[in-house]
Amino acid sequence: MRKILCVAALALAMALAGGGLACRTFRDRLAALEEQAVLQHQRSICGVEDAVAEVQKDGLGMVLPRAGLNYTRSQQLILGTSTAAFALVQDGAAAYTTLPQDVTEADMLAAAADTQGMLLRGRYLLLGSELAIGTGSPAVLVTAVDAADAFTARNTLLYGWLAVQAAVTAAALAAAWHYEKLQALNDRQSRFVADLTHELKTPLTSMIGYADLLRSAPLDESRRRAAADAIYHESTRLESLSQQLLALQGLQTDGVTLGSVPVAAVFADVARSLPDAALDCDAPAGAAVRADRVLLADLLRNLVLNALHAEPKDGTVHLTCAEAGGQWRLTVRDNGCGIPKERLKTLFTGTTLTQDTSSGGKHGMGIGLSVCAAIIKAHGGEIKAESTPGEGTTIRFWLETEEVDTEETEDEQ
Question: Is 85 in contact with 100 (CB distance < 8 Å)?
Answer without folding.
Answer: yes
